[in-house]
Amino acid sequence: MNNRRGELFVVTGPSGVGKATVLGRLMDNVEDVCISISATTRKPREGEIHGKHYFFIDRAEFEKRIGEDRFLEHAEYVGNYYGTPADFVEQMLEEGKDVILEIEAQGALKVKEKRPDCIMLFIIPPSFSDLETRLKGRGTESDEVIAKRLETAKKEFEYIDHYDYIVVNDDVDKAADEIRCIIHTSRYKTEKRKHLVR
Predict the structure, then answer these.
(1) Is the pLDDT of residue 1 over 70?
(2) pLDDT tens digit string along 73-115?
(3) Which residue has the higher pLDDT, 179 or 14?
(4) Does residue 23 form part of some domain?
(5) Would you say 163 and 123 are in contact if contact means Cβ atoms under 8 Å apart?
(6) Domain housing 61
(7) Is residue 1 in a domain?
(8) Nearest Cα to 156, choosing from 118, 124, 116, 114?
């Protein structure tokens, strides 16, 4: 029976760096880890399931929960709220699962303020020009939007010293394996601390 408490890992990085791809590969090769589920006030898209892709709640309920300080972080984008439910994260941690929170940089710093024990990871591209190439390669956004994303990325890099680990995504398998090693190392350190306390 698992009697350890899980740990919270906050993963961020600039748009286009491949966070979701790396974490998807990671989840294929790691146990007792879950990806945190965000709450949102936007309507579900086709195929999205409540409690799997998002927790879909209405605006009044979301604002009520903000007032009750029930989010580790929250923000409003294009008229809809998005946030990380503290109760869901806490439940997973209590069950002994490590929780990965994939989030943008500003939200990550907010989580660090509320949960200073969290482990912060910043995924970066091999170079800034590589990031630009990846964004353009999507073929889904205008040059103006790409320029804004690159400008945002430059600002995010200014806070890189706030992170515990920097992971370079020059190869998806390699980046995923590095994060897996970080998780296992953290688990080992936690067990060592418990034995020392005893």
Answers:
(1) no
(2) 998 877 899 999 999 999 999 999 999 999 888 889 999 999 9
(3) 179
(4) yes
(5) no
(6) 8-197
(7) no
(8) 124
Give the whole-angstrom CA distance, residue 111 versus residue 10. Answer: 8
71-93 burial, b if ≥16 CB within 10 A, otherwise e?
bbbbeeeeeebbbbbbebbbebb
Beta strands 119-124 and 98-102 are unpaired
Token couple for 92? 């997973």
Give the per-residue pLDDT at 72. Answer: 95
Average pLDDT along the chain = 89
Q: Is residue 2 part of a domain?
A: no
Q: How far apart are CA 138 and CA 131, in angstroms?
A: 11
Cα 59 vs. chain centroid, distance in angstroms?
23
Residues recorded for the chain:
198
Torsion angles phi and psi, residue 37, rounded to 5: -105, 130
Q: Which amino acid is at 28?
A: D
Q: What is the largest CA-CA distance in the chain?
A: 59
Domain count, the chain: 1
Tell me whether strands 39-40 and 119-124 are parallel, antiparallel or unpaired: unpaired
Q: Give yes or no for a contact between 110 and 69, defined as CB atoms under 8 angstroms apart.
A: no
- pLDDT (tens digit per residue) in 148-162: 888 888 888 888 999
CATH of the domain at 143: 3.40.50.300
∠180-182-188 over CA atoms, to 5°? 105
Positive or negative torsion for Cα 145, 142, 83, 161: negative
Q: Is residue 3 part of a domain?
A: no
pTM of the predicted protein model:
0.85
